[in-house]
Specification:
The protein is of the alpha/beta class and 133 residues long. The protein has one domain: 2-Layer Sandwich (Transcription Regulator spoIIAA). It is built from four helices and seven strands. A hairpin with a 2-residue loop joins strand 3 and strand 4. The longest helix has 18 residues. It is globular and about 35 Å long. The protein starts with a strand and ends with a helix.
Length: 133
Amino acid sequence: MQIQKSPSGAMFPYYFKNGELFGLHLGSYFANEDGVIEMMKAEATFFNKQHRLLGIWIDFYDTKLTDRVIKEFVAMIEHMRPYLTKLGIVGCSFISRWKINKLIKKTGMLPGLPVKYYEDPEEAKSWLVSELE
């Protein structure tokens, strides 16, 4: 498969430890809600056009996860769900994790989708390419 670049500049697919994953770079948007939401929509459209089952690593370092951003994030994941095998989220505060989990449960869209939170991107990527636990 030919390597492409996603709208955020991430290599697709991203090869890591003999596996493939997709990395969404949604970090460093700080308080720019419109910018991160626009990128989420572009990334979801790009990913779904690939028609590949993959784990996704999402980087939120230095992006303020407001209620609006979290709502749009969960909607993005719902849109991408047919092709997701695992979801590793990096760079969220405890409060943001709680809000994301609450909204995911409310929507009922992710039964069976493994979701884990990490501080270290390397741990997230390792988990994404590992066998399901």
